[in-house]
């Protein structure tokens, strides 16, 4: 369990029209979130502005699922940090395994994006995780070590105290056909990640767990000492699913 805030958030991935997004957001506006929780939602680009508008005044933070590292220019199809800020987001997810596997995201591009995000006042949520093959080879901690060092060593000197978040999402645990990590396995990896993060940035960096989180297993994760929150996909795409997990995590903190 986290000493500070317990971050509980969802990425919708490539789901929801603006109407559907507004409906989800409007179900949040009357919720009294526990002070111990920091809720957040990461819609697709097209829904960031309507969701941010609907959630103005609520405790939910809004993020983007990706961004480019450049300030502006000839990068057809890309979105800049300034554009994301302009739509009302204050967080940005970087390096999700689906982007690494399908869109050529690398530790190098994630590092560039982390620096740009911080300079624009966006909180980076940096996703890391080993594949099934890397796990089978006994290389999980080695892979995580490299991913964490690459991402955090790019934090500009003036931003070393800014909020930076990690999300440990083992690739084999994510999405349809994914197997949730056991809480004990996740807890061991979180302990290893925390050591590398402390070494690289000189201070603790909160790390969330993601990968097939649901109402049945969320408490097991947040009861682990090094798990500072949850990053949820499918189980939080419906407002009531998200709020159920939020309620269970609030109980765990009480
Ligand atoms: O990728 C995830 C969050 O970024 C997790 O997705 P699922 O919870 O659907 O496995």
What's the layout of helices and strands?
Layout: E1 6-11, H1 18-26, E2 37-42, H2 45-54, E3 61-64, H3 81-86, E4 91-94, H4 97-102, H5 107-119, E5 123-128, H6 132-136, H7 140-152, E6 165-168, H8 183-201, E7 207-210, H9 218-222, E8 229-232, H10 239-253
Parallel strand pairs: 1-2, 1-8, 2-3, 3-4, 4-5, 5-6, 6-7, 7-8
Bound molecules: 1,3-dihydroxyacetonephosphate.
| Gross morphology | globular
Number of helices: 10
Fourth-tier CATH superfamily name: Aldolase class I
Gyration radius, rounded:
17 Å
Q: How many strands?
A: 8
What is the CATH architecture descriptor? Alpha-Beta Barrel
Named once each, the bound ligands are:
1,3-dihydroxyacetonephosphate
| CA(first)-CA(last) distance | 11 Å
Instruction: Kindly report the average pLDDT value.
Output: 97
Number of structural units classed as domains: 1
Q: Using the coordinates shown, work out and report the CATH topology.
A: TIM Barrel
Order of helices and strands: EHEHEHEHHEHHEHEHEH
Structural class: alpha/beta
User: Going across the major beta sheet, what is the strand order?
Assistant: 1-2-3-4-5-6-7-8
Percent range for β-strand residues: 5-15%
- Which segments are poorly predicted (pLDDT under 50) over 5 or more consecutive residues? none
The helix fraction, in percent, is: 25-40%
């Amino acid at each position: 369990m986290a000493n500070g805030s317990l971050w509980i958030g969802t990425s919708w991935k490539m789901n929801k029209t603006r109407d559907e997004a507004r409906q989800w957001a409007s179900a949040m506006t009357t919720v009294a979130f526990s002070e111990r929780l920091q809720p957040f939602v990461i819609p697709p680009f097209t829904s960031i502005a309507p969701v941010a508008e609907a959630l103005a005044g609520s405790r939910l933070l809004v993020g983007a699922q990706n961004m480019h590292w450049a300030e502006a220019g000839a990068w057809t199809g890309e979105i800049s940090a300034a554009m994301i800020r302009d739509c009302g987001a204050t967080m940005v997810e970087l390096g999700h395994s689906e982007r690494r596997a399908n869109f050529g995201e690398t530790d190098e591009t994630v590092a560039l994006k982390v620096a740009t995000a911080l300079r624009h006042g966006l909180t980076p949520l940096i996703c890391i995780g080993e594949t099934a093959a890397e796990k089978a080879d006994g290389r999980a901690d080695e892979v995580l070590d490299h991913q964490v060092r690459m991402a955090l060593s790019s934090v500009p000197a003036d931003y070393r105290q800014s909020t930076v978040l990690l999300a440990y999402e083992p690739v084999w645990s994510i999405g349809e056909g994914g197997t949730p990590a056991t809480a004990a396995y996740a807890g061991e990896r979180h302990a290893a990640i925390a050591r590398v993060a402390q070494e690289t940035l000189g201070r603790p960096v909160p790390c969330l767990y993601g990968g097939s989180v649901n109402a049945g297993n969320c408490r097991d994760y947040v009861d682990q000492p090094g798990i500072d929150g949850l990053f949820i996909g499918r189980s939080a795409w419906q407002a009531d699913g998200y709020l159920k997990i939020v309620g269970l995590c609030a109980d765990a903190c009480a």
